[in-house]
Design goal:
By secondary structure, this protein is an alpha+beta fold. It folds into two domains: 135 residues, no CATH class; 104 residues, no CATH class. The longest helix is centred in the C-terminal third of the chain and has 24 residues. It is elongated, with a radius of gyration of 24 Å. This is SprT-like domain-containing protein. It holds the Pfam family SprT-like. One of its GO terms (cellular component) is nucleus.
Length: 288
């Protein structure tokens, strides 16, 4: 290995230094130190370099984490010939494990290929958490010979990982990362926003799915840092709309149908009704 293991290369081999896994009286463990909120004062010395220079050292971290996880969780049973590589086209999924079959003289050997999103995994802690998630998938195939997804075997490996390394966040079926995007499309009527890494939305033909309003394109870094725009945006988020956006979604079609008025007037009526209802809630809460 010796620093190889990404870009389609196998990650197995000898000679990779694996840091001490335990914490001490002066610093956290290596894995715990990769967390974003860990201060340098309490950071494991081997982890500090990966946090400070993640962009240039992420390949090395992939190899180190693979060997650490394989030794401590999977008893070195994940074959060293699996491949791990970066993918710059994955924008809504942080990682994916492809389960493969290799043949040698009609003998099948289970293998795997793990793709990692270069756009989402932009810091050490995200790589740490995503790689163990995907390696649990690789283990169900290469060790257990099962092609299940997030089933009982995957859950068993994930639980073992969390028991061995309690400093890891709970390994769940889905990652919930906030994704930073270069561009933001903002609805000029209801204010809902969509993040994109490129200018992929047609401003002429596209309308807001909540209120049918028009979008305006912004560079995310240049948007005014107000309470409505300062938070990062999730790409292709599956979360449900809340607050005013949900109110618009539930009422727009009905108001438009019965009032037969232009879009801007529909939004004005909905805004007034929403403000009225919010005022009633405040009044009710104030009397308790």
């Amino acid at each position: 290995v010796g620093g190889q293991g990404v870009g389609g290369e196998a990650v197995g081999g000898q000679g990779v230094g694996i840091p001490a896994t335990l914490s001490s009286s002066t610093h956290l463990s290596f894995l715990g130190s990769l967390s974003e909120m860990t201060s340098e004062l309490h950071c494991h010395p081997d982890a500090l370099a990966f946090k400070k220079d993640f962009e240039n050292k992420k390949d090395e971290l992939v190899v180190m984490l693979f060997h650490l996880y394989n030794r401590e969780i999977f008893d070195n049973k994940i074959p060293p010939y699996i491949k791990i590589h970066w993918n710059n086209r994955m924008t809504s999924t942080s990682g994916f494990c492809y389960k493969k079959r290799l043949y040698n003289k009609d003998v099948m050997f289970p293998s795997a290929r793990i793709a990692l999103s270069i756009k989402i995994l932009d810091r050490a802690c995200r790589l740490r958490d995503t790689l163990i998630h995907e390696l649990c998938h690789a283990a169900t195939w290469t060790i257990n010979r099962s092609r299940e997804g997030h089933g009982k075997l995957w859950r068993a490996w994930a639980d073992k990982a969390n028991q061995r390394f309690p400093e890891l966040p709970p390994i769940k079926r889905r990652h919930q990362y906030i994704i930073f995007t270069k561009y933001t499309y903002k609805c000029m009527s209801c204010g809902s926003r969509v993040g994109r890494h490129s200018k992929s939305i047609n401003l002429v033909g596209m309308r807001c799915g909540l209120c049918l309003g028009k979008f305006q394109l912004f560079l995310t870094d240049e948007m005014p840092k107000t309470s409505a725009t300062s938070a990062p945006i999730s790409v292709n988020s599956t979360s449900n709309p809340t607050g005013f956006a949900l109110f618009v979604k539930n009422n727009y079609a009905n108001v438009k149908k019965h009032c037969n008025i232009p879009h801007d007037q529909v939004m004005k009526l909905i805004s007034l009704k929403f403000a009225e209802l919010e005022g009633m809630k405040l009044g009710t809460n104030g009397n308790k």
